[in-house]
Recover the amino acids of this structure.
């Protein structure tokens, strides 16, 4: 009997979960950050970052094939001993909690800035935590269904951005590689932050119904993320001039101010509400998988008590301290550095170790 059969998820749910975790609030400011480093050639860095991410994602899948019915911690326990699995569970839980917290903080700051300027940040945090707990307490299968629902009801958003094409200047994109490849390659590390989150496959893999399609699913997921980033980046680059885009902290939202409908005065307000739904796919699964790690560590089956403790800790903490936009940016920079190590470097090292281990064991049997 499968250990994690109760919460199995379909390929579609896995694709949307993985892509949703990757699309964080960084999405709103990403075109500006790319333009600051590589100008309108920043879109090329996105494609290069996607190629590296797909390679790293496939490495994660290859690692998990070594122990398909267990998570990363089960695999490490099998190959390196009980304490290695426990240390990995602690580190991954801390990483996922930090990932979820940074996403929540940015969502609170944006909500307060655009929607509820007179409401205290702690109250906004509390309001976001209520649906977070309601969804996360029900397990991974409900999270997968929630991801499907969010993607379906948000599928109209790109169509609205196409209305901006009547005011764009495609010449902003030319010439390609204005300053050569150097600015593009120097921007690639910035794009890695756009794609971090795929390492949750270390936990999600044993829950997949059809593991034979895992490699295909993760490539589709990463590609879906890349196409979303590429679409909004190119729209921003052709709508704003190369210098003008750098004046807006969140150009993805600022563009919407030029769209007017007779039945809706401020288009950006509606979009921010939908963006919060999309961004919730970053912090809600991260919180669930973080408490999954702590439950695995203590041998518990029910994750809800751990989730309640985490929920209470964040809610109470928000009344005493709430990061500013500048502090949030520094938190994201740190997350990007840690995420690169955990999601890009660690899987490569682990796969190399497992290959050497299996090869050594095979030679010993001879």
């Amino acid at each position: 009997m499968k250990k994690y059969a109760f919460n199995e998820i379909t390929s579609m749910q896995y694709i949307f979960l993985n892509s949703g975790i990757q699309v964080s609030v960084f999405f709103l400011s990403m075109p500006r950050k790319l333009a600051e480093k590589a100008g309108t050639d920043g879109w090329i860095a996105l494609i290069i970052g996607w190629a590296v991410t797909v390679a790293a994602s496939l490495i994660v899948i290859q690692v998990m094939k070594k122990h398909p019915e267990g998570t990363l911690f089960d695999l490490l326990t099998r190959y390196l001993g009980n304490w290695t699995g426990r240390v990995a569970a602690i580190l991954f839980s801390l990483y996922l909690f930090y990932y979820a917290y940074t996403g929540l903080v940015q969502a609170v700051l944006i909500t307060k800035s655009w929607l509820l300027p007179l409401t205290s940040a702690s109250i906004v945090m509390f309001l976001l935590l209520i649906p977070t707990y309601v969804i996360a307490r029900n397990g991974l299968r409900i999270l997968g269904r929630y991801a499907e629902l969010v993607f379906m009801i948000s599928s109209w958003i790109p169509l609205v951005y196409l209305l901006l094409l009547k005011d764009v200047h495609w010449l902003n994109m030319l010439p390609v590689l204005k300053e050569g490849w150097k600015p593009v390659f120097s921007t690639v590390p910035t794009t890695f932050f756009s794609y971090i989150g795929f390492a949750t496959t270390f936990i999600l893999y044993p829950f997949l119904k059809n593991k034979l399609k895992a490699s295909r699913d993760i490539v589709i997921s990463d590609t879906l993320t890349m196409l979303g980033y590429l679409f909004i980046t190119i729209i921003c680059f052709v709508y704003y001039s190369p210098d003008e885009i750098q004046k807006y902290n969140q150009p993805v939202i600022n563009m919407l101010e030029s769209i007017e409908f007779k039945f809706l005065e401020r288009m950006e307000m509606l979009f921010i509400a939908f963006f919060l739904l999309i961004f919730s796919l970053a912090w809600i699964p991260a919180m669930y998988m973080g408490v999954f790690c702590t439950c695995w560590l203590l041998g518990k089956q029910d994750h809800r008590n751990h989730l309640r403790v985490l929920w209470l800790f964040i809610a109470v903490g928000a009344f005493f301290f709430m990061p500013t936009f500048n502090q949030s940016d520094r938190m994201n920079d740190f997350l990007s550095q840690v995420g690169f190590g955990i999601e890009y470097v660690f899987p490569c090292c682990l796969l190399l170790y497992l290959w050497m281990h299996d090869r050594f064991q095979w030679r010993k049997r001879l």
User: Anything to note?
Assistant: The chain has 15 helices and no strands. Residues 113 and 351 are 44 Å apart (CA to CA).
